[in-house]
Amino acid sequence: MPGKTTLLAPSALSADFTNLKASIELAENAGADWMHCDVMDGVFVPNITFGPFIIQAIKKCTSMVIDTHLMITDPDRYIEDFVKAGSDQVTVHLEACPHLHRTIQFIKSLGAKAGVSINPATPVSLLEPVLADLDLVLLMSVNPGFGGQKFIPGAIKKITQLDAMRKELNPELVIAVDGGVTEENCAEVIAAGADALIAGTAFFKAADPVKAAKKLKGLE
To answer: Where does substrate bind (predicted)?
Structure first.
């Protein structure tokens, strides 16, 4: 039986960069809601991806929400550049922000939605002081830095914990989950309380991306 409809955010990192426009159109036509953009600096995580110019290019190709995930040190230096490039929502890492309230307010002052992400080893409880100020929380279910990793089972408990916290502190909060989400485990992730699934390999590398999208959105 179909469950609740979930937001689907294909990860641009798994797209075909030789024909990025076609990959974006594939995602949009499959019913995706966001285009998830992973920005890595080779310092906070052991990989380097892309900067605002790719966000700008993606923005020209789609009406989907541009969901930008900054896996970088000192993200305050670049937030404005990413919003100007077209990011509708910007997520920073709790672990990278010594003045998290200030960073969240800075994102909002630029007209974007504000998100905070936490790594698998970071307790959900550390989000409590800022939860009421957030539009979304991105729970990492792998250690960030590379695509195609396996889902860490302990993330299910963290989703459940965060779902309970938001009911008390911020009912409108969106819970997104990123890392190792597949057609096989998405139902469990959704049942735990996730509203949005970030899907790279599970969408772009699927034999039938349209069918995969329906499964990931809880429509099948």
So the answer is: 11, 69, 145-148, 178-180, 200-201
- 133-143 pLDDT, tens digit per residue, is 999 999 999 99
Active site residues per annotation: 38, 178
- Binding-site annotation, residues: 11, 36, 38, 69, 145-148, 178-180, 200-201
User: Binding site for substrate: residue ranges?
Assistant: 11, 69, 145-148, 178-180, 200-201
> Are 190 and 218 within 8 A, CB to CB?
yes
In a domain, 160, yes or no: yes
Contact 26, 208 (CB under 8 A): no
pLDDT confidence of residue 4: 63
* Per-residue burial over 102-123, b = 16 or more CB atoms within 10 Å of its CB, e = otherwise: ebbebbeeeebbbbbbbbeebe
Q: Is residue 135 part of a domain?
A: yes
pLDDT at 66: 98
Q: Is residue 1 part of a domain?
A: no
Q: How large a percentage of the chain has pLDDT more than 70?
A: 98
Number of structural domains in the chain: 1
CB atoms within 10 A of CB 51: 15
Residues in binding site for a divalent metal cation: 36, 38, 69, 178
**Domain of 66?**
7-216
In a domain, 199, yes or no: yes
Q: Integer distance in angstroms from the first to the last C-alpha of the chain? A: 7
How far apart, in whole angstroms, are the C-alpha atoms of residue 39 and residue 78?
Answer: 11
pLDDT in tens, 37-66: 999 999 999 999 999 999 999 999 999 999
